Each structure stands twice: as structure tokens, then as C-alpha cells.
Amino acid sequence: MSMNLTEVAHILKEVNTQTVGYAAKAINRAVTIRSWVYGYYIQEYELNGEDKAKYGEKVMASLSEMLVNLGVEACSIRQLQICRQFYDIYPLIGQALTDQFGTMLPKGLPEKIAQTASARSQAMNELVVPADNLLNSLSFSHFVELLKLDTPLKRTFYEVECIKGGWAVKELRRQINSLYYERSALSTNKQKLSDLTHTASEVYQPSSIIRDPYVFEFLGIKPHEVILENKLSDALLDKLQNFLLELGKGFCFEARNKRILIGEKYYFVDLVFYHRILKCHVLIELKAKEFNHENIGQLNTYVRYFKRHEMQPGDNPPIGILLCTDKDEALIEYAMDETTNNIFVSKYKLELPTEAEIKKFIEQAM
């Protein structure tokens, strides 16, 4: 076989694309099945557990604590509740369990569950997407979005459209929020609406797997190892973290890419410090681009979250610092809690770096 080096490079690129896709699909499938099996055992315990009366309404909290003590990742109360709901709404996933995964369940159960799910769907005259299609095309993060829908028909509609368009999770969420299902029902030309929707949609890429919180929890990867794709932002955060610690003004490093759950979504705070003199958290968000008003809203959301969930008795309200950069200037904004008193405002101005110091640091770092 005769070929030139350019041809070899293109062949290897295609091999890489296909193998990355296989890996992403295998991991997504494993995360989904793991969550489904979790849901089965949780429901089974709730129905037939020998000591269920002992735990009562605290089953999820107790189970979560036990799993944490056993070193199991991704087992918060909310995550276990999602698994329980996933099993309840998608019992047909049992049809797709291979012998390898089937051994996690009592003998014959996957077939029994599949028969029950099929009978229930027929009795309710529901349209059902085959389990293999769901498992091969959707990640667990897709399923989490679908669980929020209130009717089986609406859920099936988005399953079909998502699989047909190869939508990313963000695109599925966007289409649901834009009422695509309702608009389709009202449209006189449904095919034209579908064509327009899919033409402008964001397609799922295997590389997106590194940003999926369910995946890197499943693999035991820490968020900071995968969450920052922008090398400039990463390098600036390295320098900023050291800069603040070297000031010696009371900064105690607490976390980088601190993950917080607000509603149904995960968010990440770039840097979190606790200031021992001000007795408050200092949250820092770095945007390696020019200032956008949405950045302030994002940071204020994080500040309010910390005030509600992280403040301890004796703490002052948290402070947010937003750093934005471009070629010409460095802008700093302090996002203060609206209830902060004037004395505290004066004190933080003395203890925190000045705007001039921050600007000088960013200009040098850039």
C-alpha cells in the first residue's frame, strides 16, 4: 500500500476521532447504567428493606452518609434522588443490560423489568424509544434534563429530536426552555420547524465528556483537572493564587474551581479564599476577556450562595472580586453584599488588595 505522509496524518486523525467517540460512548453508557442500577436498589429497599422503618424519611440522607464513608463518589442526597427517579421513569433501560451489567441485579430481573415496562407502555398507549437507542445516543446528563419533563409524550418527543440531531446537553436544555415541543404542536409546518431547529443546533462532541460533572465524578477526576480549557485563564489563576497568598494580608486558600450546586446545575467558582482578618469568604472570578455585565450577575449569584450555605456563626458576609482582562485595561469590581455595613466596607478596603495593585498584577501577568 503506497501513501504519502499527509494521507497517513488524515488516517490517524480519523482513527483518533473514532476511538475517542467509542470511549465517550462507553463511559456515558456505564454512568447511565450505574445510575439506573442505583435507582433499582434504592426503590427495592424502600419497598422491601428489612430495617426501612428505622430510617424512615431519612433513608437518602443515611445512605448518602454511608456511601461517603465507604469512599463512593457522586452520592449526595440529590444525586441518589435523581437515580431513584431515573429508574422509576426509565424502567425499560433494563432491556439493554448486557450479561456484564446484568450480574449486578438478581437473576432474570432485567427481562422481568423489560416486560413490565413494555406492558405499561402498551396499556398507556405510549410511544417508546428502544432502550439501546437511548443508551447509545444519550449521556446521563441528557437523561437528567429529560427527567424534568412532565409528560411521557413530551419526554419521547425530546428523546427523538435529541437523538436525530445529536444534540449536546446544553442544546437539549435550550430547546426545552424555548418550548420547542409546544411550538411544534402549534406549527402548521412541523417539518420546516424541525429542519430550522436542527440546522442551528449545537451538536454533541465526544470531547464534551471532560466537562460532564457526572462523568468526572464517576471516573474519580477532580474538577480542577478538567474544568479549565483556556490555558491563559489557567496560567493567570496560578499566578493570582500565589500573588494573593504572598500579600500576607490574611488570605487563607480554600478551593480552586469550587463546585456548587444551584437548582439542577453545577457551577464553579474560580478561586475561594477565607480571610482571617475580615472573617469572610473572598470569591474571585477571572474572565480572560473584556468586561460583560453578565459577569457581575454571575459573581453576585455565587456571593449570595455562599452567604446562604457557607457562612458560619461569627462570619461576615462573603465578598466577590471580579477580574476582567483585555489588551488595554484591567477592570476590577468588588461585589458586596447589600447588607454589609459601612464599618466593614472601610475595613475590607484596607485589608484587600487595592484596584491599582490588581491592575498592575494583571498587566504584568498578561
Overview of this structure, please?
This protein is of the alpha+beta class. The chain folds into 2 domains: 5-211, no CATH class; 229-365, Trna Endonuclease, Chain: A, domain 1 (3-Layer(aba) Sandwich), CATH 3.40.1350.10. It contains 17 helices and 5 strands. A 5-stranded mixed β-sheet has the order 1-2-3-4-5, sandwiched between helices. Helix 1 crosses helix 4 (77-89). The longest helix has 44 residues, at 5-48. 25% of the residues are buried. The model has no long low-confidence stretch (mean pLDDT 79).
Q: Using the CA coordinates, give the radius of gyration.
A: 25 Å
Shape: globular
Strand numbers in spatial order across the main sheet: 1-2-3-4-5
Mean pLDDT over all positions: 79
Helix/strand class: alpha+beta
Strand content: 5-15%
- In angstroms, what separates the terminal alpha carbons? 50 Å
Number of domain units: 2
Helix content: 55-70%
Total beta-strand segments: 5
pLDDT < 50 stretches: none
Give the count of helical stretches.
17
Strand/helix succession = HHHHHHHHHHHHHHEEEHEEHH
- What characterizes the major β-sheet? 5 strands, mixed
Features:
5-stranded mixed β-sheet; 2 domains; 5 strands; 366 residues; Trna Endonuclease, Chain: A, domain 1; 12% strand; alpha+beta; single chain; 17 helices
Could you outline the blueprint of secondary structure elements for this entry?
Blueprint: H1 5-48, H2 52-55, H3 59-69, H4 77-89, H5 99-102, H6 109-123, H7 131-137, H8 140-147, H9 152-165, H10 169-177, H11 180-186, H12 190-199, H13 213-218, H14 231-247, E1 251-262, E2 265-275, E3 280-287, H15 293-309, E4 319-325, E5 330-335, H16 342-351, H17 355-365
Parallel strand pairs: 3-4
Antiparallel strand pairs: 1-2, 2-3, 4-5
Helix pairs in contact: 1-4, 3-4
